[in-house]
User: Fold these one by one.
Assistant:
Number 1:
Amino acid sequence: MTAAGPYDRWPLGRGFERYYGFLGGDTHQYYPDLVRDNSQTEPEATPEQGYHLTPDLVNKAKAMIADAKQVAPDKPFFLYFAPGATHSPHHVPKQWADRYAGKFDAGWEAYRQRVFTRQRELGLLPATAELSAPDPDVADWETLPADERRLYARMMEVFAGFLEHTDHYIGELVQFLKDLHEYDNTVIMLVSDNGASAEGGPTGSVTEVRFFNNVADTVEEGLARIDEIGGPTVFNHFPWGWTHAGNTPFRRWKRETYRGGSSDPLIVTWPRGIAARGEVRSQYAHLIDMVPTVLEALRIDPPTSIGGVTQSPIEGVSFAHTFDDAAAPPGTSPSTSRCWATARSTTTGGAPYVLGRERRSPNPLTSSAT
């Protein structure tokens, strides 16, 4: 996949009419590798001029929607909005990170417990839910030197600011739909692609490329550059203590098959089509279920052929039936809903992990490993 092509796997080659964004992972939020349609392009401003990728993507998305509605006001539109946030590097203007100064000084264990309590209060988890055990790879916050706690707290402040910054600009996009009187009749699905990432390692990182070369960052370097964290001169990522806390109440993280790595919340809003407001649904669904859900909501049968090209059968199952029925059965088959049971069945570091663990169980069963 190069600037000279082939382009069949680029967005315009896969059915989109317009594209603006990045095609690779880990893109820089201040100096992103940008593509417009089938051509590489440069950011329209610099960090010193206030440039950041997220508002740039929002502005381009609004312009594309406006163009589409101006040309064909009655024609539906589909927008796939995929920011680099809150993927690493955790880049955000300092004033956003500073809003969270001191909020994480109590450490990741205290934060994890606070989040778990709040999740149950909000009904996101049942009252009988159990918090998974502390991870043996995560250091006890209270045993860390004061300088390390200061560094790690700042890294989380930056991430929290990054998340709020993202939320703010997604809100701008939603408000734009309201201004166009399109919001009530637009299905919006908001989901992450995986659980929180542990690529910052045990000490966090200000140069994450080291992770991909199996070279650990040092606390000393992080402390020396603590005031740069979140800015354009570093490629920062928080330590995996915050990763574990970010995946509350689950175990582990991205790149592993535990629920902390593979389970994500999904938010769906469609004011004209969903009567329920602010309710929780606990049915299991998969990303491949999103397309059949949209098709069912629009009362469209999946096409068998497009432009003379025979289409592969859709493998997902609609979950539209859960929109107005909290007690509805999940649409996924038992084999799909149990795909979580792929955790290692070997002994790693002396700890046995076995298949067949109940989905609601917070900890592995005790068993002989094979």
Number 2:
Amino acid sequence: MKLHYLIIALFALSFSACSDDDKECDCGNPSDSYLPLRIGNYWEFESLPEPSKMYMRTEVTRTADLDGRTYYELISTSQVEDENTNYRDTTYYRVDSRGYVYTRKKNVATEINIMRLFGNNGDQWTSETSYDEEAVITLSLVDDLAIGEKNIDDCKAYSFDIEQWADEEYTIYLAPGIGFVKNFSGWGLGSQLTKASVNGKVYTF
């Protein structure tokens, strides 16, 4: 389960590292892309498959300056149904002018190039992880992705594989104008979007 925690805190279970103000950072222009990172945007998920129910929420909370770069701070919380335990995780995202998405933790300087927003179907690259291993990431285009009772066209799927880890393949799905919509793992667990608020527009599934 390490890859689930390492790569995408938004679906997983705080740190405080904001700049002096909460202005939008110059991390590329994601507002019309597959990853609309704006302060206040949030995504709510429920776990797959049934009957194991976990509810998750990820929100873009503010910007943060880390080691001379500016990131968006995404805080994820999750709760298992019928349990009182809440989990909380923070991951920092930045998008460069090429549409390359990098993530990191506050106290770990290693960035992971988890996505390439303007990539083409079949693109593949490697990125070092904070465990000093390489992840192989493959981009696939998904013409018609079912989320709840709705279908979304032109989605992008980013699949991660670290050869040294057994059954740790993991796929994150992005939808245009919405962002995170689904994730699924090689061990048969995942989550899908139930509600999102993106740039002032609310989506329900």
